[in-house]
Write a structure and sequence with these properties.
Oligomer: single chain
Radius of gyration: 16 Å
Helix content: 25-40%
Distance between the termini: 42 Å
Shape: globular
Strand content: 15-25%
Length: 178
């Protein structure tokens, strides 16, 4: 099995890469920052580029069985920055994945790691059931929902995850040491 991971030098992505390699899955990472390559296990194949680099995306998705799209912008100056990364970057990756190489048996499964923020807040006094329409209240949440909509409208087999707050070893944001 072959898997592409975006966001591989981030908190969730780095742990995902390690878990895939432990299962002897061939891992390719889309690496935006060459300086962060030292954070990756040597067994991970590196493709240098970002979510707006069509050539790097085409190379990264080539031959993959599954694409784990973990990369995302979590802080921005405005909604346009969030959308460029979380919606448009996702759209670029989906577009590349929808063009399988000649002779490919099937399209790769696309796994989007979104956010609970895409669903919006729960009603007062109860949990969010997921039955009603999403109602994000932040630019980040709206951009993650827009990325989900891109994936849902694609021709790829897909899964979308909305994890809660994630923290643990190597976390540099949630549990800052003061």
């Amino acid at each position: 099995m072959r898997a592409l991971v975006t966001g591989a030098t981030g908190f969730v992505g780095s742990h995902l890469v390690e878990a895939l390699l432990r299962r002897e899955i061939e891992v390719t990472v889309l690496l935006r920052s060459p300086a962060k390559a030292v954070l990756l296990p040597p067994a991970a194949r590196r493709i240098h580029g970002d979510l707006h680099d069509a050539r790097a995306l085409a190379q990264a998705v080539d031959g993959q069985d599954v694409i784990y799209h973990v990369a995302g912008l979590v802080a921005a100056r405005n909604d346009a920055e969030f959308l460029r990364s979380n919606r448009d970057g996702t759209a670029n990756l989906v577009k590349a994945a929808e063009r399988p190489p000649v002779g490919a048996a099937s399209l790769p499964r696309f796994v989007l790691v979104s956010s609970m923020a895409a669903g919006g807040p729960a009603p007062s006094g109860g949990p969010l059931q997921g039955e009603g329409p999403a109602a994000p209240v932040t630019g980040y949440g709206r951009s993650k929902l827009a990325g989900e909509e891109v994936v849902r409208s694609s021709s790829l087999p897909w899964s979308i995850l909305r994890p809660p707050m994630v923290y643990g070893p190597r976390d540099t944001e949630v549990l800052k040491v003061f």
